[in-house]
Amino acid sequence: MSRADSRMKRAALVAAVAALAGCASHAAPPQWLSDARTTASSGWGGWIRMTVRVDSVDGIVGGELIAAHDDTVFVLAPGDSLRAIPHVTIRKAELVEYDPKQGTISAYAFLGVLSTVSHGFVLVLSAPAWMITGAVLTHVVVNEATTKSTVTKALRPYARFPQGIPAELDRSKLLPKPYTGQPPKRFW
Fold first, then answer.
1. Within 13 Å of residue 155, how many CA atoms lie on the same side as its CB?
2. Pair 125, 139: CB distance under 8 Å
């Protein structure tokens, strides 16, 4: 193997790592979300992260979407209490409905880039093709699993209580979804 081939292969590997490291991600903590099939039959809400403005200061609130009423969004983070967030304070919201498994797609794309080492000079074309395809697919699956809206109608289907919190529910006894990972940082 010539010195130029060796340098080219190292450059392709570095480019692959750099390209795939910056792929799309979502706001939910690792291992908190279920896959799409399990989510469809579970009673848990999606993970929502909102930028909220109170007294001219922006803060972040994140957790399981419990309910989206016309005037208030209810959020419950692991290890936290139920929070009622008035719609008028919400600046931005991102709801992740299920785990899009973007890490799996990135891993396949990375393996594809590694496989181009055997292509010789053609890897100048095939490695970027794998990187671009992997980045685009990762972006697509994350966007498919994400709703970026503050509109109540868009959020309701992904809440634990899509019809709203039942009047007879004792809100103090509402438990968060069991989570074995690192507890998410308390935002605000």
1. 29
2. no
Task: Quote the pTM value.
Answer: 0.69
Indicate if 39 and 94 belong to the same structural domain.
yes
Cα(126)–Cα(108) distance, rounded to whole angstroms?
A: 14
Q: How far does Cα 39 stand from its chain's mean position?
A: 14
The residue segments making up the domain with residue 57 are 31-99+152-188
Contacts of 67 (CB under 8 A, 6+ apart): 73, 74, 156, 159, 160, 161, 162, 164, 165
Residue (of 165, 158, 137) closest to 95 by Cα position: 158
Q: Do 134 and 161 sit in the same domain of this protein?
A: no
Per-residue pLDDT of the chain (188 residues; tens, 9 = 90+): 566 666 666 665 555 555 545 455 566 776 777 777 777 777 888 889 899 998 888 888 889 999 999 999 999 977 778 899 999 999 999 888 877 777 777 888 888 888 888 888 887 888 888 888 888 887 777 767 777 887 888 899 889 999 999 999 888 888 887 766 665 555 44
